[in-house]
Design a protein that fits this description.
The structure holds three protein chains of three kinds. By secondary structure, chain B is mainly alpha-helical. Chain B has 20 helices and three strands. In chain B, strands 2-1-3 form a three-stranded mixed beta sheet. The chains are: A mainly alpha, B mainly alpha, C mainly alpha.
Chain lengths: 354, 501, 122
Amino acid sequence: MEATVANVLLTFLAVTAVGIIMLRDLLAAVILLGAYSLIAAGAFVVMDAVDVAFTEAAVGSGISTILFLGALSFTRHDQKPRPNHSWMALFLAVAAGGLLIYGTLDMPYYGSATSAAQTNPGLAVRFLEESGSEVGPPNIVTSVLASYRGYDTLGETMVVFAAGIAVLSILGLKRRRPGENAPLDAPGDKTTTLVVNSSADDGSIASPNEMKRYPRQRHRVLQVVTKLVIPFVLMFGLYVQFHGDYGPGGGFQAGVIFASGFILYGLIFGLQKTRAIMPPSALRILMCLGLLLYCGTGLLTMVLGGNLLDYNVLAHDALHGQHWGIFTVELGVGITVTGVMISLFYNFASKRSL
Amino acid sequence: MNVQIPALLILVPFTAAPLCVLFRHAVASWVIAFCANFFSFFAACVVLSHVRSEGVIRYKVGGWMAPAGIEYYIDTLNAAVLVLVSGISLIVLVYSYHTTKKEVSLSKHHLFYAAWLMCLTGLMGIAITGDAFNVFVFLEVSSLATYMLISFGKDRRALTATFRYLIMGSVGASFILIGIGFLYAATGTLNMIDLAERIPDSESQRAVLVAFSFICIGVMIKAAIFPLHAWLPNAYTYAPTAVTAFLSGTATKVSLYVLLRFFFSIFGFEFSFGQMLLTGVLLPAAIVGFLLMSLVAVFQTDLRRMLAYSSVAQLGYIVAGIALASQAGLTAGIVHIVNHALVKSALFMSVGCIIYQIGHAHRPSFDNLFKRMPFTCIAFIISGFGLIGVPLTVGFISKFALIEASLEQNYWWLAVLILVSSLMALVYVARVAEVMLFRKSRQETPESSGMSEAPMSMLVPMYLLIAIGLYFGINGSATLSLAGEAASQLLSGFTMELSQQ
Amino acid sequence: MEKIAGLYSYWIVVVLMMAGLYIMIARYNLTKKIIGLGLFQTSIFYLYITMGKVAGGTAPILIDGEQPVYSNPVPHVLILTAIVVGVATSAVALALIVRIYEEYGTVEEDEIKAIEAAEPEA
């Protein structure tokens, strides 16, 4: 049954992929990519990867789509017609794909419980059997992510941070046309068109066409609904942050959800109002603070006589230490991710400096 | 040695990066970067001397025994890479103080140095780790930081160069990810030592083979090995000058290290060169690479582009050494990793000085250069000798070792081809030297007469690097014995007897 | 037959990955390339998750007093990291696209190349 559902979803994915290849309209392709991520997230649930599904849904079909739309609102929406085939590319893809399929021929079958990966006493079996007594949290993914492989997560947090400041340096600060820093959007004047309107205020980037397509009008219903929804979004973010030990979730997902609350507000009420609530300089501090919290935990464990990120030394009892360690580390991730995601949104929405 | 030094080596620059962004002050961020980098360099030297005297270091991150946790595995090779990367970064960082002021807008300096630190952390993180997936994570840290550093270039072509690098780099990283996935499916582990033990017994040998191919291709893209080098020339040409000097000495070298680690330690010599016939693939690529790219370099008029193509050619020598698959060949390859890093960084630094003063590095429009910037010109010419392989320079040591290694296997034709390629290097260096020394200005303008040398803070680090190069050129046995040690460790696989921590 | 049933999902995923790779190489539009990258990476995530699935298993969250079959948590952890890396790369790429469009007025690779070819050496 499970396998059937997964295979049906896989077929959907294939259809979506064909759509993405064929479509000339980039806007449609982006939306399809979001759908692709969402379907994949569904399949991940079927395959028991609830944490991954959560993240893929939040990131792949949420944040990622918003970023794409942000970029598209500056550039053209359609790719120019070109000869449809590139034999070289086709050859490379077929060769690589053929090699991969050859490699799968003696791989363990789907769902096999006796494969090398499932039976390795050093990793999978150890995590399943010992993590409860060694680390504590019922959610094994959290244990592995934050403790056994906490160092990977440290690197991952830095990748997020790097993306945040990279976008800041590429889009922010330096302006090609100085003197254009006039307020980009009138308060309360935003519709769901993301950044299109804001760039239209510049008078140069958005074409008159786009202006026509997205008339500036007040959306009372949206505004009211948003105000109702946002508290719940933020609360859910907190829940995911602090409940990640017990169920799917954790710092990363929580950060994305928390940020999405602000992004939603920005979309409906305009960037200026959002900036008043969450000023860009606060974001910069948040970004750094989260990462420093993570590094600080690492330093603290070393000061207390353990190895890097060995949480056992944080309290008298090893399990308590692990608990505290995972808590602070996840909090660090959550803070950095929140800061970076909102900052990304600001940058794409306004291209103005922090 | 304090047992925590390997961890601090990574954590200190790691922590310094957000601090730079937090303080948002141009000079303060440079100072933070310098201090952190200095610490890393110092720690790397301590680690290297410890590894050479007491043997391999294994450090359990998180206190978890591998393979459940991630560990550092440090032997002579990666300790040497750590010293090389942090050392070159430190020297170029001093040099970058002035160039950055000129090339990057003041309000972005904190971001620039934060990116620099992240790049350094990423590169050292790749070199120090003993976990295959962790390599991917830190590869991405360094890649994102590198994209950011290149995009600081003033020319708008820096943007497209970055984008192209990003596309190729992401394909490379994705290939590595696929390869690690297949390895995991075949063996159920991610730890390098554990992988090395389990690969021969795996029931999925085809998956292992595919994993090998994909990791190979992925890393070779990152290392810019011919014919997968397309991103490199533009990236090196349009990046800020200090960034080019930094990357040319570190980024591709670390990728080569990863290649060595996977070829020899993880998959093993037997698998890579026996079963996979790697010599048959690598050697032709290397030879075509160093011949063709040297030839292309001869016809470049922009100095940085010329040096970039020459970098791809020099990488060809290293790959040729590896492809010989012998102790001598491997030693030559490793020694050339170090030597080429020293020479090429110094060369890019001298070109950076020219750009700093004149604003471009377009050979045909130089005039009276020697009179205006004598120290820079001398630096370029000395380092250029290193590139060609003139005796008493580092280039001579490694080329001699390489030729010896190829003669050892009776590949006399390879020795001849290396000499031919060196002659081409002579041509392109000489063309620049000729313009520098002998071309007089066509018309006397006020700015074309009189000295206008680059500031001391640029000259001193450059000459320091050249001095190090000369030292290792005259005393070649120091680097050769180090490389020989690393090569024999690689050929014998992972060492188990160690000072466990 | 058993082989086909057991490996079917791998094969489809491989085809999807290659669809993404094809878009990245073949399409001239820079945004489309990044869409291809997204497709490529999401498919790699799928590949990993497929490897961790155990038939009849459940999500790797411990339940008190029971001993169910759990799916393998290791690929989940790795992919959580990889997803983050993927979105970070896309964000940087999109920022570059915006700037490229500002500077060149186009995001078509061949048009950019034509403009660059006309420029003098740096």
